[in-house]
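Why does residue order matter? Because the sequence determines the fold. Keep that principle in mind as you read this record.
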Amino acid sequence: MWKRTAPVAALGLLLLAGCSEVAEVSESVGGAADTASVCGQALGIVDLNPNVDPQQVQDEAADKAQRLRDLAGQAAEQDLKQNLTALADGYVELEQQRADRIGDFNQWLQQNLNKLDQLRKACT
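Structure:
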């Protein structure tokens, strides 16, 4: 009887080991999907371009900062979290400035375009 159960037990252990590897791959793929989802949402929130209306961006700054912070809380990768938080901080900074200071806005825009570029790199 032991001669029959030993191969069955060995096969069972082999299958369990395979399940463990499948679970690890599944978790890895799930993490990648989460990163892709977070990146897609973040890039949809941050709609910066050189022709953007300063007043409109400032009016939406608080909402965008909060949404980016929420996404940072969902992100699994540290680099992605840091980039999302940096962009959120940029929106908070803009919210605290006066919109009529166009020179300040242009500087803010350039800084945040650089942060957006860093986010894109973290997302790839």
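Residues 2-123 form one domain.
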